[in-house]
């Protein structure tokens, strides 16, 4: 076995989904964009569908195609990017529901496929996707006459519970949608944790399903072990890795392990990364290279066959912090070279 072993716990994903749905006391539609945050949209979505999920979100129509193939007919697939030029055939053939986000998209949709269900996105201040106040005022009547399946908006600062942007966006969303008698959705994982005012009829958890912050009580989902390819003894003063950026301060034993920045272990982790042998930390030394890491195992008794980079001692958020990023980016960067094993 040459490559790292990435273990993905599907039953933990299902538990996290159930926990978030019961917190929200409403329907929780899993967000499985970007190949289910890098974990594999087929196995992840099938596990959630078997557990009872009826609606799923993806970012693009192309992702909806892959998801429809994985799920078969039945579950509703909503496309956050809406209806882009050239999407009509894919939307029709795969039975996808675009979340229209501009007057241009609304026009395109109603002209090209008026029978195809759609939802609408409203911008409440994030300025990323959706109808703004004045646009919405202009088209709401026409749009609502075509029976949209969902009105949604997205929070910009939901991972900061005390941020004044949260109540501001909530208030605006209410003003734009109160009394319209269409199901509503405002919250992703962070918004679910802000409390019942933010839940409406549907929530859209992504990262929380996959074990990431801000869902602190998430069950961990991924584990990643990297096999040791070679071990060597260094004398004090010898150097290791590209650019000679690390020098042994004592007689040292170094293990070379099988993963690098081509596997999502960002080069910015150089000199900031720790791997684990059970509960014993082993610092990576020198620069992260494309396929390899060098790890100081001097303080271990023996030499293990593999070292753990994601596990009980270090989850996606801690690794993300070391890399100067967030758990989301760690997950979606994991790459395709690992041997993946799905549990549960
Ligand atoms: C990605 C995304 C989500 C899921 O967000 P998480 O923070 O991962 O829970 C929900 N809604 C929209 C519009 C998104 O873009």
Can you walk through the features of this model?
Helix 1 crosses helix 3. This protein is 29% helix and 23% strand. The mean pLDDT is 97. The chain has 11 helices and 18 strands. The radius of gyration is 23 Å and the shape is elongated. The protein is α/β, with parallel strands linked by helices and 344 residues long. The strands form 4 sheets. Strands 1, 10, 13, 14, 15, 16, 17 and 18 form an 8-stranded mixed sheet that branches. Residues 31, 33, 80, 154, 188-190, 204-208 line the site of pyridoxal-5'-phosphate (PLP). GO terms for molecular function: alanine racemase activity. Catalyzes the interconversion of L-alanine and D-alanine. May also act on other amino acids. The active site is at 33 (proton acceptor), 242 (proton acceptor).
Beta-strand portion reads 15-25%
Distance between the termini: 22 Å
What's the structural domain tally? 2
Give the structural class: alpha/beta
How are helices and strands ordered from N to C?
A: EHEHHEHEHEHEHEHEHEEEEEEEEEHHE
Number of helices, counting only DSSP H or I runs of 4 residues or more: 11
Low-confidence runs of at least 5 consecutive residues: none
CATH homologous superfamily title of the largest domain: Alanine racemase
Shape: elongated
In the CATH scheme, the class of the largest domain would be Alpha Beta
Looking at CATH, which topology of the largest domain would you report? Answer: TIM Barrel
Ligand inventory reads: pyridoxal-5'-phosphate
Any idea what the CATH architecture of the largest domain is? Alpha-Beta Barrel
Mean pLDDT: 97
**Considering DSSP H and I runs of 4 or more, what fraction of the residues is helical?**
25-40%
What can be said about the biggest beta sheet? 8 strands, mixed
Rg over CA atoms: 23 Å
Binding site for substrate: 128, 290
Catalytic activity: L-alanine = D-alanine
Active site: 33 (proton acceptor), 242 (proton acceptor)
Domain Alanine racemase C-terminal: 221-343
């Amino acid at each position: 076995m040459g490559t790292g072993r990435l273990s993905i716990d599907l039953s933990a994903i299902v538990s996290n989904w159930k926990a978030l749905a019961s917190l929200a006391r409403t329907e929780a539609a899993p967000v499985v964009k970007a190949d289910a945050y890098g974990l594999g949209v087929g196995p992840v979505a099938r596990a959630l569908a078997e557990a009872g999920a009826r609606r799923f979100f993806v970012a693009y129509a192309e992702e909806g195609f892959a998801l429809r193939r994985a799920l078969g007919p039945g579950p509703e697939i909503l496309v956050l990017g809406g209806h882009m030029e050239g999407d009509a055939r894919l939307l029709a053939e795969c039975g996808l529901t675009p979340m229209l986000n501009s007057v241009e998209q609304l026009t395109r949709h109603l002209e090209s496929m008026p029978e195809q269900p759609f939802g609408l996105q409203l911008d409440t201040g994030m300025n990323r996707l959706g109808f703004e106040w004045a646009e919405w005022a202009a088209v709401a009547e026409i749009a609502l006459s075509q029976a949209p399946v969902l009105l949604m908006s997205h929070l910009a600062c939901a991972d900061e519970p005390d941020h004044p942007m949260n109540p501001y966006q909530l208030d605006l969303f209410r003003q734009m949608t109160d009394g319209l008698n269409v199901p509503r959705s405002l919250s992703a994982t962070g918004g679910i944790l802000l409390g019942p005012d933010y839940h409406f009829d549907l929530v859209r958890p992504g990262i929380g399903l996959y074990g990431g912050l801000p869902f602190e009580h998430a069950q961990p989902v991924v584990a990643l072990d990297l096999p040791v390819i070679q071990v060597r003894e260094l004398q004090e003063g010898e150097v290791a890795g590209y650019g000679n950026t690390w020098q042994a301060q004592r007689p040292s034993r170094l293990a070379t392990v099988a993963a690098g920045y081509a596997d999502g272990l960002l080069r910015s982790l150089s000199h900031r990364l720790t791997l684990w042998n059970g509960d014993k930390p082993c610092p990576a030394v020198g620069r992260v290279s494309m396929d390899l890491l060098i790890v100081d195992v001097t303080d271990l008794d023996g030499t293990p066959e593999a070292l753990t980079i994601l596990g009980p001692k270090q989850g996606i958020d801690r690794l993300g912090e070391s890399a100067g990023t967030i758990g989301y980016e760690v997950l979606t960067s994991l790459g395709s070279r690992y041997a993946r094993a799905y549990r549960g």
